[in-house]
Amino acid sequence: MPTYDNLREATTQGSLDDVKYFIEEKGESLYESILYDAVFSVLPLLPHQEKELEKIVEYLISKDAPLRGHEVLCMAVRRRRVQMIQLLVSKGADVNERDSTGLSALDYVNITTVDSLEKQRVLRKNGARTGVELGSFHNPDE
Hints:
CATH class: Mainly Alpha
Number of helices: 9
Mean pLDDT: 79
Helix content: 55-70%
Shape: globular
Structural class: mainly alpha
Number of domains: 1
Strand content: under 5%
Order of helices and strands: HHHHHHHHH
Low-confidence stretches: none
CATH topology: Serine Threonine Protein Phosphatase 5, Tetratricopeptide repeat
CATH superfamily: Ankyrin repeat-containing domain
């Protein structure tokens, strides 16, 4: 059973060449939360690192990394990555997916203040709604 440690490290460190190496040369499979790990990578990133991270995410999506079920879009909002939000939405991320607390990506936009208008525009343009607009919140304790 693969551990994915090398692929996870390459993904979170922002090395597209290393990510490609572990997938194409070493034959490592994509693990379920690989996009979440990529988007989660450490803040702040310099502009060239952001571009490399976007290339990694595009590559992973081209290799069928799962866009749904792992709160990837919520994490992109929480990490204040406007270009990443645009990329994920353009590739089919569910703009109304909620995290385990019942919050949607738009809820996180409303919680954060940095770049919130731009993030709201991107999400609303693509049909995003808040958790309240979507209906009752999911309570993981129920």
